[in-house]
Amino acid sequence: MSINTALVLGSGGATGIAWELAVLVGLADAGVNLAADRVIGTSAGAVVAARLTTGADLELLLVGLGGELVGFDRTPLRVLPALVAAQLYPSRRQALLWLGRAAARGWTAAAEAVWVERLVPDLGEADWPESLVIVATDVVTGRPAYFTASQPVSLSLAVAASCALPGVFPPVRVDGRLHFDGGLRSPANLDLAVGAQSVLALVPNGGAVRPHRRAQAQGASLANHGSAVRIVSPDSASRAAMGPDPLAGQRTSAILAAGRVQGRRIAPELDRFWAV
Hints:
Layout: E1 5-9, H1 13-29, E2 38-42, H2 44-53, H3 58-69, H4 80-88, H5 92-105, H6 109-119, E3 132-138, E4 144-147, H7 155-162, E5 172-174, E6 177-181, E7 198-202, H8 215-224, E8 228-232, H9 236-242, H10 252-270
Parallel strand pairs: 1-2, 1-7, 2-3, 7-8
Antiparallel strand pairs: 3-4, 3-6, 5-6
Helix pairs in contact: 1-2, 1-3, 1-10, 2-7, 4-5, 9-10
C-alpha cells in the first residue's frame, strides 16, 4: 500500500490525551485536513488516534474531555523507581520482562474490565479503521505488539493495552496474551511511519534514555530516507498548562485551551508538506 501521509500520536498520559486532541481541533479550526493514510497511536496517542479514525466528532470530544480525565490522579510515587530503573537497565528486553512479571502477578479479569470501561467506554463495538496502527508491549516476551485491522482484535482492548502503564494500570489480555504500555518501546514510535512521504507527529513527551528511541532521532532517520517530517511538541504555554505529571487530569481545561491555540498557530506551517 502506498503511504502518502502518516499521522503519529505519541504517549503522554492524561495530559497528553488532552493536548493532542486540542492541537488536532486547533488544526481543524484552521482548515487542515487531518485524514492520513496511516495513523500510529501509542498510549495516550492510541486513545486519540482511535477516536479520530473512527469518525468521532473531535469538537464534542473536546467539550466532554474534562469530565473524562479529571478522575485521573497523580502518578503514584511508588512506581517511579521501577520505571526509571527499567530505562537505565543495560538490557532493554530484560527490563521489560522484569516489569512484565510484576504486571502479570497483579492482573485480574475484573481489574482489566474496570480499566477498559474507564478509559474507552465508547469503543467497545467500534470497527477497526484500516489506517490505524496501535502499539503495545507483550508482557511475556517484552517485544512490541502492533495491532491493525488485519488482526481480529477488539479496538477497545488494544487501546487500553497500549495505555496500561506498569504499576499504575492493569495489563490487558489481547488474543490470549497480556500487554501493557506501547510507550515502553518508544514514546512516539515514529519509525513505524517509514515509507510515508509526509509525517506529522504530535509528541507530548519524546524523551528517552536510549537515543534511537527518541522522537527526534527517529524523525531524523525518516528524513534521511526521504520523508518530510514535522514533529510538534508542546509550546511554552502548553507545557505550563500540562505541568510535570502526565496523569494530572485536573489540569485538562487549561491544556485544552493552550493546545487549541497552538494548533491554530502552527496550521499555516503544515501547508508546506502535508499533502492530502
